[in-house]
Amino acid sequence: MRSVREAVNKAIEDLRSTGGVGASLQAEVVVTAPPETHALLASLGDDLKFVFITSAATLVAGADGSALAVDVRASSATKCERCWHYRADVGQDSGDGAYLGLCGRCVQNLHGTGERRSIA
Length: 120
What we know:
Number of helices: 4
Strand order of the largest sheet: 2-1-3
CATH architecture of the largest domain: 2-Layer Sandwich
CATH topology of the largest domain: hypothetical protein PF0899 fold
Number of strands: 5
Structural class: alpha+beta
């Protein structure tokens, strides 16, 4: 897990050095992993993005014998004013306009039953 996280951090830092992102939460990452590593990462489910400290993390199964590959890009989503994650649902749960700068996750955490996180 640590070696994968280091690879992700390096890819984010490479993008940051060129001005592509300012912070890791601005990044979206796609990790292509060989079967054994894929199984480990898949066990984290949606919490994988919290392990990488990114706004989104997608996991792709690589072939046997393939090397780990990390692709990072800047998110095109809007930044939530509360959690700073870049999400497509920022401002979607506006109702009376009180939550225009918040993502659905934050609205749920503040005024709903809250999110369920099992790992991270």
